[in-house]
Write a structure and sequence with these properties.
234 residues, Arv1, 4% strand, mainly alpha, two-stranded antiparallel ribbon
Length: 234
C-alpha cells in the first residue's frame, strides 16, 4: 500500500486513506468510502483482464483505479512504442507512394533514415497536441494545474490513454479495403480515451476535456501543415 491519503475512490473520486485493511492471517477487508459509502476500489479484487476490458470501455472507475490506486510507471515506454507504431505506419505509406524500381531508390529506402524521420515528425506532432491540451487547460482552469505533480499526473494519464495506437500495427499487417476506415476508428478511440483521462484526472465534466482536445488538434494540424510546407514528410 502507498502513503496514506494517496488513494482515490473509484466511484466519487474523493481521497481515501487506504484501499483495504489487513487483519492478518489472510483476512482482508476492502475500505469503504466515507463520502459515497461504496467500496473505495472494487478493482483490487478483479482480474487484470477485467480491468483492461473496463479501461477499453472507457469506464471512469477503471481509469481512477489505474491512475490513482496503482503504481504504473511504464507510461513513457508505452508512449514511445506507440510513436514507433505510428512512425512505422507512415514509413510504409512512404514506401507505397513510390513506384520507382531504380536500384538507387531501393537502397535509399532501405536506409533507416526515412523511418527515423517519420518518428521525429510523429513525435513533433504529438508533442504539439499535448502542449495544446496543457495550454487550453491552464488558460481556462489555471488552478487545476498549479503544481508540478498536477502536470506530471495529467501527462501520465494522457500517455497511458494513448495505448490505442498499438492497434495501428495489426491494422497494417492485416491490410484490407477497410484499413483507412480502421485507422480513423483508432484515431477516434484514442481521442475518446484522452478525453476520459483528462476528465478523470482533473474531475471535470464531459464537455471541457473535448474543448482542450480540440485546441490540441488545432495546434497539431498547424504543425502538420508546417511540416508539409517545409517538405519534411516527403
Amino acid at each position: 500500500m502507498a502513503e496514506r491519503g494517496a488513494y482515490r475512490c473509484v466511484e466519487c473520486s474523493r481521497e481515501a486513506a487506504e484501499l483495504y485493511r489487513d487483519y492478518r492471517h489472510g483476512v482482508l477487508r476492502i475500505a469503504v468510502c466515507k463520502s459515497c459509502q461504496k467500496p473505495v476500489d472494487k478493482y483490487i479484487e478483479y482480474d487484470p483482464v477485467i480491468i483492461l476490458i473496463n479501461a477499453i470501455l472507457c469506464k471512469a472507475q477503471a481509469y481512477r483505479h489505474i491512475l490513482f490506486n496503482t503504481k504504473i510507471n511504464f507510461h513513457g515506454k508505452l508512449y514511445i512504442f506507440c510513436l514507433l507504431c505510428e512512425a512505422y505506419l507512415r514509413w510504409l505509406q512512404l514506401q507505397d507512394s513510390s513506384q520507382s524500381t531504380d536500384p538507387d531508390d531501393l537502397i535509399r529506402y532501405a536506409k533507416e533514415w526515412d523511418f527515423y524521420r517519420m518518428f521525429g515528425i510523429a513525435s513533433l506532432e504529438q508533442t504539439s497536441f499535448l502542449v495544446g491540451i496543457f495550454i487550453a487547460l491552464w488558460w481556462r482552469r489555471p488552478k487545476m494545474l498549479k503544481t508540478k505533480s498536477d502536470f506530471i499526473l495529467l501527462l501520465k494519464a494522457l500517455l497511458l490513454s494513448s495505448y490505442g495506437k498499438l492497434l495501428l500495427i495489426p491494422a497494417v499487417i492485416w491490410e484490407h479495403d477497410y484499413t483507412p476506415l480502421c485507422l480513423v476508428f483508432i484515431k477516434v478511440f484514442v481521442l475518446i480515451s484522452n478525453s476520459q483521462a483528462i476528465r478523470v484526472t482533473l474531475n471535470l465534466n464531459r464537455v471541457f476535456p473535448w474543448l482542450a482536445i480540440f485546441f490540441g488538434l488545432i495546434l497539431e494540424n498547424g504543425v502538420v501543415c508546417l511540416v508539409q510546407k517545409i517538405g519534411w514528410d516527403v
